[in-house]
Amino acid sequence: MVEPLEGSRNGNGKRIVISTFGSLGDLHPYIALALGLQARGHRAVIATSGFYRPKVEALGIGFASVRPDKPDTDADPDLMRRIMDQRQGTETVICELLMPVLRQSYDDMLAAAEGADLLVGHPLTYTTRLVAEKRGLLWASTLLQPIGFLSAYDPPVLPPAPFLEHLRFLGPVFHRMLFGVGKWSVRAWSAPWHRLRAELGLPAIPDSPLFEGQHAPGLVLAMFSPLFAPKQRDWPPQTAVTGFAFYDHDGEAELSSELQRFLDAGPPPIVFTLGSSAVMDAGSFYEHSAAAAKLLGRRSVLLVGKETNNRPAALPEGAIAVDYAPYSKLFPRAAAIVHQGGVGTTAQAMLSGRPMLVMPYGHDQPDNAARLRRLGISRTLPRSRYTPERAAAELRQLLEQPTYGVRAAEVGQRVAQEDGVSAACDALEGLLGSSALGTQATRPQLPRSPIH
């Protein structure tokens, strides 16, 4: 285990700027990391969309606003549907939200990095590397989901072509060729980034910031459980698999009194949620979910978000709909959890030790669903097939076959033994320590995986 950086616990710590972009699932792990770093005496700053400033500053964490801000779904009501589309959602995020404001993002990140000792980047904050190179700053990259490694030895499920999962048996040679074709087909997506590099006087590189070019040379933090994805031989050698970094408070840190009373009044319910993004494109999910629970004779909790049209017009007996509840408090009290497969929701569901049904949208969600299924703790139902009858049939399998519950409990116990925040902080302090010794070109000692 890497020793803490000298002076980090006595108030003489480093200024560490953590950049991120996206939903609460893209923010909360970095809040957890920032709080962990500050507990060690460092000065953490989260650099992200200005929309999150009140939430971050209320926790005593430094904040820097970096464009783009939160997508304006009021001005473009169809935007969230395009963002969550299985085939074109990732292209929408990159080409419509991020690349058009790349120069503004760079200017904001450059200001945020003033006086920084270390930058920590998210897969979608493409300007973190540019600022680090331009200013000669130390930086580390992160991945919240295994799909970002695009490993030929552990091939992910690609959202536009989920059927390719059935070709995993063809092995790494086939998948290297497949991924090579895929990278070539989206090369235009990162063209603005390469143009900005040239404008900034940085040398041209062949790597795309969407793929190999996103990885920092000194440290890559894989901020998920090694149970979810063990380290592969084609991942960057400087990768540290830390375990999940947990934080899930969005306003209230406890269950509401109404929800608490409901939980106390009967057997564990089935919990239905779509996270913080897919919930804005819920369609008929909540209506079908309440009906599925009724078919099973089960109680249900619907986490419907702030979208008023997500609430079913008439809830069956034994169902409750609430805007929000902290997953860490609610999930352990569920009989099963139905969700969209976002990595933040997935992590909390794994920790809870409860079996799952996943209805993935796009991005990393089909791959996350497949990994949960291979762990033996989940079943998958495509969004296009999600009806009350099919959802009830899948849930019946989860609830009546004891192997799902037993395996989910085992996984939950093992995830609970991990300390993703501590492992990530150790690795970052190791990187800072190697830099202080003038050896930043040398890969720092990485922490052991929490589970062996």
* Beta strand count: 13
> What profile does the largest beta sheet have?
7 strands, parallel
Helices and strands, in order, run as: EHEHEHHHEHEHHEEHEHEEHEHEHEHHH
**Integer count of domains:** 2
- Low-confidence runs: 1-11, 440-445, 447-452
Q: Give the CA-CA distance, first to last residue.
A: 14 Å
Going across the biggest sheet, name each strand in turn: 3-2-1-4-5-6-7
The CATH architecture designation of the largest domain is 3-Layer(aba) Sandwich
Using only C-alpha atoms, the radius of gyration works out to 22 Å
What CATH first level of the largest domain would be assigned? Alpha Beta
For this structure, the CATH topology of the largest domain is Rossmann fold
Provide the β-strand percentage band: 5-15%
**Helix share, percent:** 25-40%
Number of helices: 16
Overall SS class: alpha/beta
3D architecture notes:
The strands form two sheets. The chain has a seven-stranded parallel sheet, with helices on both faces. The protein has a six-stranded parallel sheet with strand order 10-9-8-11-12-13, sandwiched between helices. By secondary structure, it is of the alpha/beta class. Helices cover 38% and strands 12% of the residues. β11, α12 and β12 form a beta-alpha-beta unit. α1 packs across α16, α5 crosses α6 and α12 packs across α15. The chain starts with 14 loop residues before the first strand and ends in a 16-residue tail after the last helix. It folds into two domains: 249 residues, Glycogen Phosphorylase B (Rossmann fold, 3-Layer(aba) Sandwich), CATH 3.40.50; 160 residues, Glycogen Phosphorylase B (Rossmann fold), CATH 3.40.50.2000.
